Amino acid sequence: MSWLGGNSDNSAKRSGIVSVLDIGSHKICCIIAKLKPREESQLLRGRTHRVQVIGIGHQKSRGVKSGVIVDLDRAEQAIRLAVDAAERMAGLTIDSLIVNVSAGRLKSDAATATVNLGGHETDEADVRRVLEAGARQALRHERQVLHTLPVGFLLDTERGIQDPRGMVGDVLGVDMHVLTADTAPLRNLELCINRAHLSVERMVATPYASGLSALVDDEGEMGAACIDIGAGTTSMSVFFSGKMVYASSIPIGGAHVTMDLARGLSTAMDDAERMKVMHGTVMPAAGDDRDLVTVQPIGSEADDGGMQVPRAAMNRIIRARVEETLEIVRDRLNQSGSGHLAGKRVVLTGGGAQLQGLAEAARRILGRNVRVGRPLGVAGLPEAAKGPAFAAAVGLMIYPQVAEFEVGQVAGGVSHRLTGTGGRFGRVGQWLRQSF
Predict the structure, then answer these.
(1) pLDDT of 400-435, one tens digit each?
(2) Where is it located (predicted)?
(3) Integer Cα distance of 151 and 405 in angstroms
């Protein structure tokens, strides 16, 4: 997926350990993996390292609602348990993590900037200067820069340069995609992780991570949208020419379908979730009016036998919420100005993507080819973690391979002025800086 691969000389690339934390509204998952230099593959040409999972732990999410921390104590406890399980399995202790972000009203902005070179060769410092200048343009009050992604560089009048280092010119410019989020939810996310005696290595937008994990290189090059349907949020990203050019999120997800069922059928949330998973579908099916589903009303005894409801009634509730969500996603993509770049390809990820009939509904409402995406090119995942629900977590492990030119959170750059948290927020580990 990377538009700029890592060092092509394998001997110069380093092996190392990467630890990630996927904080969702349904589950909190910690994965520890070894990254080893890899040979180029046809399917995933942009990957510079092979990812081998050595530890994984996940917990039912607590204290998190629509991606936002709403109870520090409960969220901290769930994070501790997930990290502890992963550490025990890996046989090592971690002190920092790459973490995903889906809350905070993600917003994409375009930015351009130029710096004078004075005719000398472009070096690493020049690239960093022009990227930092572009990142500053996108700053807003109470907003935090998550990603600064160069779409293309220009030298004097030549546009579309992918890597200007070593080239000569008078003016170096950059066209950038800058992704920002509200500061408060990000600070509380970091605070919660700090309370578990861990630090944040980097924050990565969930739709970016999911796209890195589930799109094959040709989809990322020719254009595709990745829609991650989590429990509390649905986030979307558009990739084109191997780069993420747009991202957004809405605070609606699979848990809202469950809530609608619980209210509509007057049953408990856990029972509604079970019914949704076992019997629910988005598409109407023959015999739905005749098929009956047992519903346990709230407050009734388990041995009461419950009441019988036509499956069609349950599925109408599911369909209404799913169609509304997909229509919001469609409108958001159309209004973004980047929807056309996705062409006719949509990849669905997240736990909500597993709902029966969802791909067909998305095909109809979005008017595009739709497939359910799974994490690609990662070894050592247990069978239960190979589905679309784990796409974001796996994408966090792939992220360091594509982060070479990002400055939004880099220590010593603009990061501390951007974040306002004055320290550990977004600190990039020494190994990540040296290895990619």
Answers:
(1) 888 877 764 433 233 333 333 333 333 444 445 555
(2) Cell membrane
(3) 11
User: Where do the H-state alpha helices sit in 55-205?
Assistant: 72-90, 124-137, 183-195
- The Cβ-side half-sphere exposure at 404, using a 13 Å CA radius, reads 21
The three-class DSSP label of residue 16 is: strand
Residues 6+ apart with CB under 8 A from 120: 168
Q: Could you tell me the CA-to-CA distances from 209 to 31, 103, 287 in Å, in that order?
A: 14, 14, 40
d(CA 4, CA 7): 9
247: tokens are: 């991202």
Residue found under tokens 């990000």: 186
Q: Which residue has the tokens 């969500």?
A: 325
- Say what the pLDDT of residue 384 is: 86
Cα–Cα distance measured from residue 185 to residue 342, given in angstroms and rounded to the nearest whole number: 29
Torsion angle of C-alpha atoms 346, 253, 400, 373, degrees rounded to 10: -40
Burial class (CB in 10 A: 0-12, 13-18, 19+), 225: buried
**Residue 234: C-alpha distances to residues 49, 229, 247, 276, 411 (Å):** 29, 4, 11, 18, 30
56: nearest Cα among 405, 434, 384? 384
DSSP structure class, residue 329: H
308 in helix, strand or coil?
strand
Q: What is the pTM of this model?
A: 0.87
Closest to 1 (Cα-Cα) out of 426, 435, 387, 375: 375
